[in-house]
Specification:
By secondary structure, the chain is of the alpha/beta class. It has eight helices and seven strands; from the N terminus they run βαβαααβαβαββαβα. Strand 5 and strand 6 form a beta hairpin. It is globular, with a radius of gyration of 18 Å. The N and C termini lie close together (5 Å). It binds zinc ion. The site of zinc ion (ZN) has 8 residues, from loops. Monomer. Its EC number is 2.7.4.3. Pathway: Purine metabolism; AMP biosynthesis via salvage pathway; AMP from ADP: step 1/1. Catalyzes the reversible transfer of the terminal phosphate group between ATP and AMP. Plays an important role in cellular energy homeostasis and in adenine nucleotide metabolism.
Length: 212
């Protein structure tokens, strides 16, 4: 049975969907960095308050704060014997080293989800949103019943600047160069599993469930 794991994968690769599905079929909880941050702020922990100041002043959250908040969460889960899927952390080699030295983390596998750029571009460039109510759609996976209008309020659906092909290509380049060091780090530790995310989320999860 897989224990604490890390999910790595470019935007648009389906990481969130796969992690949620895996979490439903196991007792692993899905920990995204965004969620951990929001919880720390909500619970007004000392670190949460510090984080709130940084975020509100529009500054970049330094590694030391991110690490400390993740550590706080992992220690809490560890004391309750709860295993987790980390999604969105680590992002830098500093964070990976920190996690590696954290005894309570004890990462068993790192799952790298990959897909050819053309597939990611195709998926992301078909996303649409409603500027009035913020509802999101996808031309293939979640089309609006009113074609190019929002189902809630008939507003014309738009594409985010970020989801235009050129921006996607740029985001993928940044992601790939940032992630390469992490991939090498975990390859060296022999805990990296690379999976083609062109299979369905169900197939991927079934494959993961068979891992020791
Ligand atoms: Zn709407």
């Amino acid at each position: 049975m897989i224990k604490n794991i890390i999910f790595l994968g470019a935007p648009g690769v389906g990481k969130g969907t796969i992690a949620s599905l895996l979490s439903q079929k196991t007792d692993l909880i899905h920990l995204s960095t965004g969620e951990i941050f929001r919880a720390a702020i909500r619970n007004k922990t000392k670190l949460g308050l510090e984080l709130k100041n940084i975020v509100e002043s529009g500054n970049y959250v330094p590694d030391e704060i991110t690490n400390a908040i993740v550590e706080e969460k992992i220690k809490e889960l560890n004391s309750k014997n709860i295993n987790f899927i980390l999604d969105g952390y680590p992002r830098t080699i500093n964070q990976a080293n920190f996690l590696d030295n954290l005894e309570s983390a004890n990462i068993s596998k790192v799952i790298l989800l990959t897909a050819p750029n053309e597939i990611i571009i195709q998926r992301l460039s078909k996303r649409r949103y409603c500027p009035t109510c913020s509802a999101t759609y996808h031309l293939d996976f979640k089309p609006s019943k009113k074609i190019n209008l929002c189902e809630n309020d008939d507003t014309l659906l738009l594409q985010r600047k970020d989801d235009e092909e050129e921006s996607i290509v740029r985001r993928l380049e940044v992601y790939n160069s940032e992630t390469k060091v992490l991939v090498d780090f975990y390859k060296e530790k022999k805990i990296l599993i690379e999976i083609e995310a062109t299979q369905s989320p169900e197939e991927i999860v079934n494959y993961l469930l068979k891992q020791k």
